[in-house]
Amino acid sequence: MARQAMRTRKPVRSADTQERGSAGHRTVITGASGGFRRAAVWYVFVLPPFALLVLFVCLPTAQTFLQSLYREVGPDQQQFVGVDQFTKLGTTGVFWDALINTVLLGIAFLALVIPLAAVLAAMLNHVRRGATALKVIYFLPQLTSSVAVALIFLYVFQPDWGLLNGFLHVLGIEDVPLWLAEPSFGLTGSRAAVTILAVWTGLGYFILVFLAGIQSIPVELYEAAAVDGANPFQLWRYITLPGLRPTIIFLVMTGAFDAMARFSDLWTLGGPGGSPARTLQSIVMLMYQVGFVSHDVNQAAAIAVVFFLIMLALTVVAYRAFLSREFKARS
Amino acid sequence: MHSSLLRTLVTSTLMVGLAACGGADTGSGGSGADRDSAPPVKVLMIGYPDEDGIDAVTGAKTPGIQQLQAAFDKANPDITMEIISIPWGEGATGYAPKTEAMIKANEACLYEMPAAPAYGKRGLLVNLDTMIAKDPAFTNVWGEQALDAARSWGPDNAKSLFYLPNNTGIRVINWDAKLFKDWGVEPLSAKPTLQEIESKAARMTGKNPVTGEQNYGYWYQGKYAVWQFMAIAHAMGADWGSIKADGKLEINWNTPGYLQAMEWFVRMSTYAPKGALATEGMPQGFVTDKNTVAIIPEGEQSYFLPQLIAQPDLRERFRTSYNLKGPDGRGGLNSASPLAMAASCPNKDQAWTVLKWLAGSPEAQAYYFDSIGRLPVVEGSEKIVTPVAGLPDGAIVLDQARTADATYPWAAEQPRFALQAQLEAAIAGKVTPSQALEQAQKETDEWLARQ
After folding, report:
1. What are B315-351's pLDDT values in tens digits?
2. Nearest chain A residue to B94, by CA
3. Which of A88, A178, A288 lies at the smallest CB-CB distance from B274?
4. Cβ(B352)–Cβ(B164) under 8 Å?
5. Are B277 and B424 in contact (CB under 8 A)?
6. Is the CATH number 3.30.428.10 carried by domain B27-169+335-379?
């Protein structure tokens, strides 16, 4: 209905008539050339970013797809090998380990950060004094370089002289966790440590987005529910949570993309091999290690293509499952 | 208004485009009028200070990269050299992608290039034997052993010389004389055996009888433990394999020799702090009064030399022994910094002169030590870095640089990461040494099959 209205809406100014003013006199330009000139201005506006997009995104992406079909056989010499690089990847255990690791780290991050941020945002929404200061404090880690944050956490999680275990010692705990020296899935292992780091870094952003979502829910709904005798839990369960559905979908999607592309902090903490015992190796780290440490650019390109296809699939699934319903609901 | 806006936008876009396309001289090239006709020899150097400075710990002056440029210009007035200086960096902004991009784009002639053999294998570097063959004035100031250690497989020659070493870090066995004294343990010998290290490390793990602090007999650099493992295995006589005539590698991890080495390493790791697996360098407190670790095989020495030189009490406490040596008298990671020539270099003759000067001249060698503490690789180096030669273990430090193990052609490849990952798993107790080597061999074989 709204779309129909847009299509039939008449322009304020005629398409083939335009006023053009300069130096104190006004000229009216009409016809097709005027329309073209007016449109050209906007093309010129669009052109620089479009050119940059083509130069730095589209061309390298196309080049990566092409590289994944070749094998280097000498300086500036490549041999076409078809899908051979992908076949090899499929039989490489390290690739699957890195992929599974990335997915697991992503799931752990989202499973922690989304509920935590939702609760904190709801509480922050009721804070009347110092709310801005709290928002700034929560958001600060997001503004800090991920490498700098990782270096700090390297010290925080150091098992022998780190900040966290030092604190546990003060509390009288003798058998302290090994954190980054413990290659395990446990709550005190290396994967848990980097998940805590990711949550600490990303929490502020998630809180702010949730807060915006909460504040967009009409107050009248809460007032009506209060009149009907709803308690705070019911308000949260039947008004806030359904109202946050688009926000949660947005955060799950963007959070999943970020988690899949995780690199700098893991590289800083785990080194090129994703130490300890590859527990911190993500798919992007493997791509970098294969391409720039082991100098197999074609194999790295194949990993990049697989990664691209996974992200594309994730986007399509997310769109079909969630976003299309949201768009329909809003139109 | 629209046309003027259009003109402004077009002009701005053109200006931005032209500015972006214009080259920027990132080097510090000389500008003698007589040298302007010849194209400059561009050199990529990594990790040197951009400006003159002062060492925050010792107060010693650290010369910036322009000092090296000035010394070269003075010694070679007929050649223009431009240095492109970059930091080591980290991850995506590290030296590795920059080097890869630069050599693909023919950005420089000479490269300070970790993993040079891997580039040479791809045919991207000049076999320097061809330059030596047509240079009657060439003098080998590095020694036969150092050049032999630098040889690796190339498409045209199975023993190509793709680089000259221009300086080196060294890997030694560091030990704390004070802790030895506190525990009443005899000082470590100059060339300790594995048995000596094991027995002394075991005795010095526990509460220090003098200070009451927790001491540790042993240390390993967690994320780079594979290098210590290789030194141990080499000392036990294990052999990783060889390069075949066609350049393909044959690598054997799953052998009795490596199993014995890994079992020994895992046992020794119990004398180290539990968190050593999560580290990537020397222990906290090393070269300070707070040190608690007695013996550090495969320890990094270069970074700490300026401190030992500046503080006499430290040099008496933190001592140095030779790294673990194999039956061939060699051992310890070869951490020489390779200086290589790109196959695409347009002025190879001039570049060769520059390369020889940067890798072999006393001025350049002195600069590397003064700026970042890297040691000379030329014979007679004690005359160039006299403060090092004057240390209690100066002779060992300088000799270790010349007796490191040959470079590992797989040092940047998947076999290294396979072995490192499984070694970590074994140290953490997740797998047995036998299972670790089996898995490392499996991953290595997968990689070898793809070569």
Report:
1. 999 999 999 999 999 999 998 999 999 999 999 999 9
2. A292
3. A178
4. no
5. yes
6. no
d(CA A180, CA A153): 10
- For residue B422, list chain A residues with Cβ-Cβ distance below 8 A: 277
The bridge status of strand B336-341 relative to strand B110-112 is: antiparallel
Residue from B110, B30, B108 nearest B66 by CA: B30
ipTM: 0.81
What is the mean predicted confidence (pLDDT) over B261-283?
96
pTM, two decimal places: 0.85
CA atoms within 13 A on the CB side of A16: 2
Q: CA neighbours within 13 Å on the CB side: how many for A66?
A: 7
Token digits of residue B345: 């270099």
pLDDT category of residue B37 using cuts at 50, 70 and 90: low
Is pLDDT above 50 for B26? no
CB contact under 8 A, B425 and A183: yes
Could you give the C-alpha distances from B313 to B74, B184, B292, B310, B318, in angstroms and in order?
39, 20, 17, 9, 9
The percent of residues above 90 in pLDDT, for chain A, comes to 67
The SS3 assignment for B230 reads: helix
Radius of gyration of chain B, Cα coordinates, nearest whole angstrom: 24
Query: Which CATH code fits B171-333+408-449?
Result: 3.40.190.10
In chain B, what residues touch A21 (CB-CB under 8 Å)?
1
User: Nearest-CA residue of chain B relative to A276?
Assistant: B424
Residues B414-435 have pLDDT tens digits of: 999 999 999 999 999 999 999 9
- The count of C-alpha atoms lying within 13 angstroms of the C-alpha of A310, restricted to the half-sphere facing its C-beta, is 17
Cβ separation A273–B420 shorter than 8 A: yes
Asked if B278 lies within 8 A of A264 by C-beta distance, the reply is no
Distance CA B319, CA B304 (A): 11
Instruction: Return the closest-CA partner of residue A286 out of B226, B100, B417.
Output: B417
Q: Report residue B156 as tokens.
A: 């045209």
Q: What angle do CA A299, A302, A304 make, to 5 degrees?
A: 115
**Does pLDDT of B33 surpass 80?**
no
pLDDT digit string, tens, across residues B75-96: 999 999 999 999 998 777 789 9
Give the separation between CA A37 and CA A110, rounded to whole angstroms. Answer: 49
Residues 6+ apart with CB under 8 A from B156: B127
Pick the residue of B15, B93, B277, B431 with the most A CBs within 10 A to test the interface with A by mutation.
Answer: B277
pLDDT tier at A104 (50, 70, 90 boundaries)?
Answer: very high
Q: Residues of A with CB below 8 A from B115's CB?
A: 293, 295
What is the rounded CA–CA span in Å between residue A259 and residue A194?
12
Taken in order of first residue, the domains within chain A and their CATH numbers are: 90-330 (1.10.3720.10)
Tell me the pLDDT tens digit for each residue of B372-381.
Answer: 989 998 988 8
Cα gap B102→B222, rounded to integer Å: 32
Nearest to A71 by CA among A79, A63, A62: A79
Q: Say if residue B414 is exposed, middle or buried (CB neighbours under 10 Å; 0-12, 13-18, 19+).
A: buried
B27-169+335-379 matches B171-333+408-449 in fold = yes
A157, A271, A293 ranked by CB distance to B223: nearest: A271
Q: Is A8 helix (H, G, I), strand (E, B) or coil?
A: helix
**Length of chain B, in residues:** 451
Find where tokens 């899935």 sit. A185
Per-residue pLDDT reduced to its tens digit, B395-416: 999 989 888 898 898 998 899 9
